[in-house]
Amino acid sequence: xxxxxxxxxxxxxxxxxxxxxxxxxxxxxxxxxxxxxxxxxxxxxxxxxxxxxxxxxxxxxxxxxxxxxxxxxxxxxxxxxxxxxxxxxxxxxxxxxxxxxxxxxxxxxxxxxxxxxxxxxxxxxxxxxxxxxxxxxxxxxxxxxxxxxxxxxxxxxxxxxxxxxxxxxxxxxxxxxxxxxxxxxxxxxxxxxxxxxxxxxxxxxxxxxxxxxxxxxxxxxxxxxxxxxxxxxxxxxxxxxxxxxxxxxxxxxxxxxxxxxxxxxxxxxxxxxxxxxxxxxxxxxxxxxxx
Length: 291
Known about the structure:
This protein is an alpha/beta fold and 291 residues long. It has helices at 54-66, 80-90, 93-96, 117-123, 153-165, and strands spanning 3-5, 24-26, 37-42, 71-74, 100-102, 128-132, 135-139, 172-176, 188-190, 195-197, 203-208, 215-219, 222-226, 242-247, 253-258. It has a single domain (34-286), classed as Metallo-dependent phosphatases (Purple Acid Phosphatase, chain A, domain 2), CATH 3.60.21.10. The two termini are 29 Å apart.
């Protein structure tokens, strides 16, 4: 918390290696003295067969710099072998000048010795955690996809149980994944007999993508937040956007969608002109938490 690496935030564990050194740099002006901070969430860019990404990536980079985002999180579906190989070149901690993290989606499980092999070789571990301010952030992987992963839900559960056991009591928890865990108000990760109940760990939000839609719900005391696509319109024909989530020192969150200022009404290559004509008091894609 309060530091960043110059790029990769992980190192591979090797049997003949005795120590691991991480060079870190101060994360200047991203977290205030009260631990308030913000981050950008995006998902489902699916760039495997597309090009000309400079505009939407430039919009995200400029917003992150102007608004001092603490990090950028992409929750998966870079899409197939080509998307996996190309996305890291477009968006990484070095060229975005902001810590960039990724999660694995169903279309990122590709042919290999195991489904996540290629993803892992480029982006690192598929489940991990980190702290920013007074929040413990956790990434959990997509459990199935185009090819079978080597991990199981119980593997992730065992790691998650150990990870959360080390979190300071009272610290807020926010979980990322490619898809939603549950539609109920009980966020139990595992099987029917062995599981960790995330509600017991001050879970504030479960943040995901997958559905190419913008959805914010309150499930019990937990926000579930789905973000659509930043490079194309959503499955519901909503305009391309990315999500900004602001977190205060107590871990309470507010969210809004950010649209490129030149995007509304613009006809994209191979796309359609976007027109929004709903009443001003019913803007479903401009929703905001805690109005």
